[in-house]
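Board notes (copied after class):
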Amino acid sequence: MDPRAKVYEIVKKFSTTMMVTLGPENRPEARPMHIAKAEENGQIWFFTGNSGRVANEVTEDRYVLLVFQDERSSYLTLRGNARVVEDRATMKELWSEPYKLWFPGGLDDPELTLIAVEPLGAEYWDNGG
């Protein structure tokens, strides 16, 4: 199987990943992020707040690490470049009601923005035997 196809096959099974960015003093900062969409071409989309730490850290340093683990001891790390995207059409396409928990104003919430991650490389481990 093509390595890109294998990574996409793995990523599309997840709804959440840990996103690691570089924070103050170049300290790694990790937090769970809900995956709004994983595209076959590899790009992964997330909603975030435009004045929050994730958006600020991605603006300062685009390099991110996404970490995935399933309950069967399969692991994937994906390195990529992230960017903040202000695209209302894409927001509308990716929006679902559960995001109201974080963005009560829905699609009109002034904090709402997107992060797109373009993969640069990935590593996969499967300890399931």
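Comment from the instructor: The chain is about 20% helix and 45% strand. Strands lie at 16-22, 28-34, 37-38, 44-49, 63-69, 74-85, 112-126.
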